[in-house]
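USER: Fancy drafting a protein?

ASSISTANT:
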Amino acid sequence: MKNWQKALDYFVTGMGFGAIIYLVILGVTYENIGDLRVPLKSVFIVFICSGLIGELSFLFKTALSYLGALILHLIGTFALFSIMMLLNHWLIDWQTLLIFVITYAVIWLIIRLIQEKDIRRINRQIKKRNG
């Protein structure tokens, strides 16, 4: 796969996670979803920042240790999250920081579980081929 295709995959994956989280947060924080008005500008900002967060996944493909890549990814993700919050004129307080931390941990856990499942599947295929 070419580098630009990988970059596009990371971007689209990030946009997907961002869109899901955005919708969940909107659904949880607003009592009457029928009256909710979401500016299109805010949606684009969320998509772009989420896509850029997805691009940070390249850190896990470098020579960095997993912990080093994770720390840099967390810092970069928080920076992009902060930019998104500021551009949308959304309040950054202890609640939004808590939401950020919980969301980051849940997404990290989901991705790790998917990776572990893929690794087990690949190992089974290798054992089948060799056995």
The chain has four helices and no strands. The longest helix spans residues 94-130. Residues 18 and 131 are 42 Å apart (CA to CA). The mean pLDDT is 83.
